Every structure is written in C-alpha cells, then in structure tokens.
Amino acid sequence: MTETPSVRQTVIPRPAAQPRRLRTFMTRILAGTILPGAGLMLSGRTLAGGLFLSFFVLGIVASALTAIAIGPTKAAILVATNPTLLIPLAIAAGIFILLLIASLIWTADLNWPSPAGRTKKALAGLTAFLLIAALIAPTARAMQYVFITSNLVGNVFSASAPKGKEVGIGKDPWAGIPHVNVLLVGSDAQKDRPGVRTDSMMMASIDTQTGDTLLVSIPRNLENAPFPSSSPLAKIHPNGFRCKEDCLLNEVWTEGEEHAHLYPGDPRPGLTALKESISEITGLTPDYSVVIDMKSFQALVNAMGGVDINVKHRIPIGGEVTNGNIVPGSIKGWIEPGVQHLDGYHAMWYARGRATTDDYNRTARQRCMVNALVKQVDPWTMIDRFPQVAAVINEHIHTDVPQDHLPAWADLVEKMQKGKIRSFGLNASNTNVANPDYRHIREMIQASMFGQPLPTPTYTDGRAVPPAFRSRPTPTPTPENSISAPSNTTPAPATPTVEDATDADAAAAC
C-alpha cells in the first residue's frame, strides 16, 4: 500500500496594519480643507484628489482673471445684481462645498489614527467636526444672502426700462449717454393726512464718464410749478400748478393721484406727474427715480452703521411752530456742531429739522447727507449688515431702475465714489418761490452742471433784477423766551442760516 505524501501548507500571515498617527491625520485633513483634493492625494487617492484640486484651481483662476479685468468690486456687484447668473453660481458653489465635505470625510476615514486611545480619537473627531463646520457656516450664510439678494432685485427693481433710456453692455455701457439724471424723493405720508407729500426733492445729474455728480435741491414750496405740454396735467393747469391754497410743488404728487384717470395703466401717476413737473422746472429729464419713505430713512442709516457728518450749527430734534413761534417744550434735544457720527434717529433729524432754520437750510443739509452716504458706504459693513439693509430697501424704497440696467449701474456707482460731488440749491438768495422765474432756474442749473458763473436774473425787457427783489424768503419762526436749553448749551439762532447756493464741492460745503 502506497502512502500518500502529506502536503505541508505554509500560511503567510497578513502584514500588520501600518499605524496611523494623529499628526498625519491632522496634516492631511487640514491640507484637504485649504486645498480641496490635496488631502486625498496625500492619502494615495491621486486620481480623485487631482480632479478635485483641478476644478478648484480652475475656479480660482477664472475668478481672479475676471476680478483683474473689471475690478473685484464691479465683478461682485455684477454677479449680485444679475439673478440669472447669481442663482446658478450659488447652486454650483453649494454642490462644490458638499463635495468638499464628502472629500474631508473620506480623507478622515483613510487617515483615522490607529491604534489610538480615547484622547487621540476625540481630538481627531473634534478637528474633523470643526473643519466641516467652518465650511458649512459661511456657506449657509452665503446661501441666505443669495436668496435675499434675488428677492430684493425682483421686488425693488422694475422688470422694464423707463421710456427713452437704453444702456448697453460691455466695457462702456453708458456710451452715447453723457449724463444720467436721477430724481431722489423723500415722501412724508402720514395717517392723519391724505395723499403723499414729497418732503424733499433732489435731482442728481451724473457724468457717466467721470462719475462727477451735481446734486440740485428743489424747494418743496415752489409755486406755479409748470407742466410740459406733453403732460395730461398741462391741460388742467396750463399756466402752472395754481389754486387758492396749498398748490405748492410738494402737492403735485397728490394732484397726479387725484387725476389718475389721465394716466391709464400707470401704477404711480403721482410720481409720474412729479417727474413731469420737475423736468420742466430744472430742464433735466429724470431718467430714473428713487422714492424713500422718510421714516424708513432712520432704519436704513442704522442698517448701514451710521454716518459721519460735519454739523455746522445746532439742529433741533423735534420742534413745533405756531404763528411763527416755537411751541415751548416741543424741541426734545439738539444735534450739536462739529464732526459727529450720527445714528439713524439723529441723521433723520439732521436732514429734517427746521424749527430754527428754514427749508433752504434743510435742503442744503439733505445734500450733505446724500454726499456723506455715497462717500462713506463701506462694502464690508454692507456685507455684514446686508439682511437688515435689504429688509429696509425691500419694504420702504421704490425705484424704476430696471433689473437689466443694474450691471451698468454697478459701473456708474464705482465711478461716483471716485468722482466729485457738487451741490447747488434753489434758495432765498436766487429764487422767489412765490413767483419763480423758471427760465432763469434752468439757466442756473445748466451753468452749475458745467462749472460756469451763475447768470443774473433779468426782467423781460433785459434789465437786471436788483438783488433785493430776487427773492421773497419764507418767514422763519423764532424761539420764544420761555424755551430753555440745557445750561451747557447756547440758545438756537432766531435767524435762519441760508446756505450758499453756488456750485460747490459738496464735501467742502458740508
């Protein structure tokens, strides 16, 4: 009998798993966070890591080239003001962040420290959690901003352009448009008073090449406000806006609303009527308009972080005037002279207070406020406070700037911040509000736009009007003796301060 030879099997033991150190884990997961895909490449997954890193680098290079070509601020504004571009980019960025988080989890799994005690495992888990949280938190906030921005653009900015204004795209969207005119209106609607009264009116005429801006203040108490022949209201008021009482410029909005049937299909006939009248007054056709509820102005300034203003003289907070005298106790406080950082409440009274001054002084301060806000807008503060700013704009500001013009406005706003803002006001020194010479007003505004000397008003026969007869100042209230101020302050001036209306650098004038 033949014996079967025995087969000796040799079992080769599996190599012991290489120990994975905590330091290696920390290095690779941190590398994967800073350079997406780098952690996977260091862990031996070169194909997956390389693809991820390539997409990341391509995105960074494309963004950098765009920012270099048109400027980082303009690039950001162009994206933010274009919902059709903003939403897809946000979705793509969100997907990328989710993939990045998945890559970090994969990197953590490949490099999890072993063998390791509880302390090392806890440190590894905490590190991974903090890095992933550091990606999720800003991504969630960015997504919030994206949807707030998209909602803001859709609600505030119109879908169609105003008649007669077409802007282009590309490097010079304002080619062929030397100036663009924006009517700024502060409305003062109150529950105990019907209609909307335009508390403040300014025309901003912007040089589209340099960004230089002329702010023209228009008194609310102008009488005989004219309408162009093309206006429906010209048939009712062929010789200007006249009636027995209260036919001032700030009543034109209400007049338009009361004759809404003359503006069929117009959702804001009052605003249209006001734009028509101001066009005839100034000789400048409003290309766009912005209307803000004056009460919301306080919230807007607060949302922007306040504003720095050089206060020239004491401004009352509150103040009620009866028969030319200030009602005792109606002034609640004062904004003192000097450079001040004003919150929304005090900024509103700086722009509105007139118990101890007059309308002309107030309009001069309003021009100073607009200049300060334009020059002091801080992009980082705006980003930090964006939800608050957007909420105020969404609820209280109306504009007819169309959505597809926003990229062009991004270019223009950047020029405005670099340009010079000049100021011109119609006041008691150059305008008789009771019987205005509108031809002369248009001549003064044209001279101010191009830095020319202001023309001298003349009679119809060509004779110059003496200075004493050029205006009829509005009577100004004087404080009564019974009004007391804090012991460390001086009484408010009884005579109003009339601001110089000459064409001047707004920053220097303020």
Automatic annotation (TrEMBL):
Q: Report the protein name in the record.
A: Putative transcriptional regulator yvhJ
Chain segments annotated as transmembrane = 50-73, 85-106, 122-140
- Family membership, please give it: Belongs to the LytR/CpsA/Psr (LCP) family.
Ranges where the Cell envelope-related transcriptional attenuator domain occurs: 197-377
Q: Which organism is it from?
A: Dermatophilus congolensis
Spell out the PANTHER family in the cross-references.
Answer: POLYISOPRENYL-TEICHOIC ACID--PEPTIDOGLYCAN TEICHOIC ACID TRANSFERASE TAGU (PTHR33392:SF6)
Domain of life, source organism: Bacteria
Swiss-Prot/TrEMBL keywords: Membrane, Transmembrane, Transmembrane helix
